[in-house]
C-alpha cells in the first residue's frame, strides 16, 4: 500500500490529524452534533481532565471552556496525533499526557470537570477510586456500550454521589443497534 499514513478531519473550526492506527469518530455529522450539544451544556472551569482523549476529539473543542485541560491518552499513535492537534488548533491550555488514565488520575488532586469516553469495557475500579478522591463538580460520560454505561452510572449514583443531569443518545451508526450515549453527572 502507498499513500499517507494519516488523514485530516475537520469538525466545525477544528482540524484533527488522525493516523491509520488512531481512533476517531466515524460519523463526522453526528460527531459535530454531539460536540455542539456538550459545549452548549458546559460552563467555564478552572481545571478539566479528558481521560481516554484519543487524538483530542473532545479536548480541542472544549479547551476554550477551561483555564487548563489535561488530556490523557495511553495509545502512542493517538497521543502523537493529540500533540500535533494541540499545535494545529493552537490549544495552548491543553496539556497532553501519555499514560493510562486510571494510573495518572492518582497524580491529580483537583479537577472541576472530567470527561470520560472509555473503551467498550467502561471504567475500572482504579478510575472510580480516584474519582472518589478527586470529586469533580461535574462529569461528562460518553459511552458506546449501553451495558457498561448503565453499570458505571449505577456506581456513580450509588457509591460516589452523582446524579444524572442530562442523558442524550447519538445515533452514529444509523440502521444498526449501535448507539453512543452522553450523560452529564453532577455531584450531590
The CATH H-level homologous superfamily: Vaccinia Virus protein VP39
Cα radius of gyration in angstroms: 16 Å
The largest sheet, given as strand count, sense and whether it forms a barrel, is: 7 strands, mixed
Task: Give the low-pLDDT segments.
Answer: none
| Secondary-structure element order, N to C | EEHEHEHEHEHEHEE
Quote the CATH topology.
Rossmann fold
Q: Would you state the CATH class?
A: Alpha Beta
Can you count the beta strands? Answer: 9
Q: Which architecture does the CATH hierarchy give at level 2?
A: 3-Layer(aba) Sandwich
**Shape, please?**
globular
Percent strand? 25-35%
Q: What spatial order of strands do you see in the largest sheet?
A: 5-4-3-6-7-9-8
Structural class: alpha/beta
What is the helix content?
25-40%
Termini gap: 54 Å
Average the pLDDT over all residues and give the rounded result: 95
Active site: 144 (nucleophile), 144
Binding site for S-adenosyl-L-methionine: 25, 52, 73, 117
GO molecular function, one term: rRNA (uridine-C5-)-methyltransferase activity
Organism: candidate division WOR-3 bacterium
Descriptive account of the structure:
- The chain has helices at 28-40, 59-62, 76-88, 101-104, 125-134, 146-160, and strands at 6-11, 14-19, 45-51, 66-73, 94-98, 113-116, 138-143, 162-170, 180-187.
- α2 links the parallel β3 and β4.
- A seven-stranded mixed sheet has the order 5-4-3-6-7-9-8, with helices on both faces. Strands 1-2 form a two-stranded antiparallel ribbon.
- It has one domain (6-187): Rossmann fold (3-Layer(aba) Sandwich).
- The mean pLDDT is 95.
- With 188 residues, it is α/β, with parallel strands linked by helices.
- The longest helix is centred in the last third of the chain and has 15 residues, at 146-160.
- It is globular and about 50 Å long.
- The chain is 31% helix and 31% strand.
Amino acid at each position: 500500500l502507498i499513500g499517507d499514513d494519516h488523514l485530516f478531519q475537520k469538525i466545525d473550526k477544528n482540524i484533527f490529524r488522525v493516523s491509520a492506527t488512531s481512533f476517531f469518530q466515524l460519523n463526522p455529522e453526528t460527531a459535530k452534533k454531539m460536540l455542539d450539544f456538550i459545549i452548549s451544556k458546559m460552563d467555564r472551569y478552572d481545571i478539566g481532565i479528558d481521560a481516554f482523549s484519543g487524538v483530542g476529539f473532545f479536548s480541542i473543542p472544549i479547551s476554550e471552556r477551561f483555564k487548563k485541560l489535561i488530556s490523557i491518552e495511553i495509545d502512542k499513535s493517538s497521543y502523537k496525533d493529540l500533540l500535533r492537534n494541540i499545535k494545529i488548533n493552537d490549544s495552548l491550555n491543553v496539556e497532553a499526557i501519555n499514560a493510562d488514565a486510571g494510573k495518572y488520575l492518582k497524580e491529580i488532586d483537583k479537577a472541576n470537570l472530567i470527561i470520560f469516553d472509555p473503551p467498550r469495557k467502561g471504567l475500572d475500579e482504579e478510575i472510580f477510586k480516584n474519582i472518589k478522591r478527586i470529586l469533580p463538580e461535574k462529569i461528562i460520560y460518553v459511552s458506546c456500550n449501553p451495558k457498561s454505561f448503565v453499570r458505571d452510572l449505577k456506581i456513580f449514583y450509588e457509591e460516589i454521589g452523582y446524579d444524572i443531569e442530562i442523558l442524550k443518545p447519538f445515533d452514529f451508526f444509523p440502521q444498526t443497534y449501535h448507539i453512543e450515549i452522553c450523560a452529564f453527572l453532577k455531584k450531590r
